[in-house]
Amino acid sequence: MRHFRNRFALLCLLTLLWTANFSIAQDDDAISIVGSRIVSEVLVSLGEAANIESLSISAKGTSQGIDIFCNGDIDIAVASRAISSAEDLICGSNEVVHSEFLFAHKIIAFAAHNAVPVSCISSSELDSLLKPSSSNQASDWADYAPETDTLPVVMFVPDTDTLEYAIADSNIVGDQLRNDVETYDSVVGAVARAGDAEGALAILPFTPDLAGDEPIKVLETKSADDSNCVSPSAENLESGLYPFAQSYFLYVNRKRMSEKEALEAFVQVLISPESAGTIESFGFTPVTRETYDVNARMLSNPDATFAVGGGETAFEIPEGLTGDVNISGSANAYQLLDRVSSRLSGDGAQLRVSINAVGQSAGLASLCAGEVDLAILDSPPHTLDMTACDESEVDTVSIDIGSHATVLLGNQADRQTMCLTLDQIDSIWNASSTNRVMAWSDVDASMPEQTMTLFGLTTVDRYADILLQGIYETAPPIRRDTEQDFDHLYRAAAVGNVEGSLTYMAWPDYQAVLDRQQSNVHLVSVDAGSGCVSPSADTIANGTYRLSRPASLLAKEMALTDINVQSLLWSLFSDDNWQLFEVEEFVGIEEADLPARRRQLETLFRQAESKVAATEESVEQAASDEAREDSSE
Question: pLDDT tens digits for 197-219?
Answer without folding.
Answer: 999 999 999 988 887 767 999 99
